[in-house]
Queue: 2 jobs
Job 1
Amino acid sequence: MNAYRAWAEIDLDALTTNLAVIRQRAGPGTRVMLVVKADAYGHGAVPIAHHAVRCGVAAFGVGSSAEALELRRAGIRLPILVLGTIIDDEADECLRNDVHVALHSTARRAMLQSLAARMGLRAKVHVNIDTGMGRLGVLPAKAIELLREVKASPNLELCGIMTHISAPDGAMAASTTDQQRLFEGVLREARAEGLQRGWTHMANSAGLFTSLKPCYDTVRPGISAYGVLPNDLRGSDELRPVLSLRTQVVFLKDIPAGYPVGYGSTWKSERPTRIATLPVGYNDGVAWRLGNKGEVLVRGIRARIVGRVSMDYTTVDVGHIRGVEVGDVVTLIGSDGAQTITAEEIAAKADTIAYEITCSVGKRVARVPRGGVDVVVPAQPPSRPDAGRVEPARIDLRRAEALRSETPRVEPVRAESRPIETRPEGTAQVTDARGPTYRSESTLRPGS
């Protein structure tokens, strides 16, 4: 019997492979800002981020200040950028914890300058140019004015200029060409006035896997790092899925022909059969729209979901599978024997996108990291946004002890920033292959 009702196996070795593919596509000297928003697309942001540090990423992108502070609490010290926006009441904690903030308007520039001046520090900002996404960002016609204001603000540090590709098929879309033309226009004018500083970034997963040129000095992969490509782009054969979602059979019931199953009695058995009840539902990542058409793997054989998916339970017809027992492992995403169910397959059946499938894996599902001991860590360019582009040598760290002792070089948080302290009283932090943990100081020998 398994210890969990449902669990997501997180293959850290697959993440290593995917990040290596991304580095190859981005080219030498290009920084990787790994996007770990939405709990790393449902994979678990903290273990993903710790392993990504060991794989040599330069920074992280998140969707909210809460996500950035979660990583800080977990001991992540690399640069973290809130890619979207923050509300005014969140700015104080972001600045205290050295979180980079995307800047979209003159009004927000004035607020951050005033706040940073009162706090006695410099806020790190990335100016977001709206070249066609239409959600956030300053319009190209007003971008230079905003960059001038940032340069004139003594408590703001320009750490990057960015834009966001709107087309799911990346560089193959005409709209992406138009966006890049607008972005290049702003960059040219910024360079001419001496306003460009920090990192320049535009390429997301779709851009990377459609050979967007140039990629600039920083790329922002998200879903591709987890082994999924948007819009069925070419290159998926190079990537390995990181997440497998599994549960177990908790109840078996033999039913006669014509017997209804689930809310609304949307399915009735055509023959006597056996129904397996699974302790997962749409709160755990099984899309409601999979009712009566989704499949799972039981003993390496596909079994159809029957009846509606409910919040806590899903029922499957296992009458054609011999020997099914309570406690048998059931695979919802991933492989079992020769059979595989991918997030993309599920998304097609649920009439959605693969992003939603992985992001919907709920908090009740345990994340269980696998592997991640042996990694190849390519050196990144310096983490300081003003350090310029370099051609790094490759560094091979294959021994587990080397991994445990390796500490990434990052800019320290300023003392007056008062980073969040999370170490429980009377404990010391110990880092292993899956990140930092805390042990009683009395159990640690000097130098351990």
Job 2
Amino acid sequence: MEKLEKNLKKLTFNVWASTGDKPIEHISEAAQFSFIYGIGTEGLSDFEMAIDGLGLQEVFELEIDKNRLHSYFGWLCQAMGSNLILPDSDDTVKMKFELHMVSTPEPREIVTAIAELQSHGGCSSDCGCGCH
């Protein structure tokens, strides 16, 4: 599939997540997760780098220890935490991301997203993002 330009594009994913021994294939309902690619203050997150070559309807699967979620997703943890219910335990999290849509956000959406990121002021264990 053709690689899509993602810089400053709004990416929307269907996401399935599971913990422990439960196979991800048994999760029937997907959550949606959207963000504007490339606006992080510390450069691209590991997740953004991993999905850079993804085309529409392509799938990226990830298995990661919950205690590594924050370092892997970086600034995206806040947006993810509001859309996905992540485990309370320190289990391994299995995630499947399907790139559902790539769109061009309005300039005000980009400004709002950057302002929200700046007002978040970094991430600490009590930030509520769900990645700790």
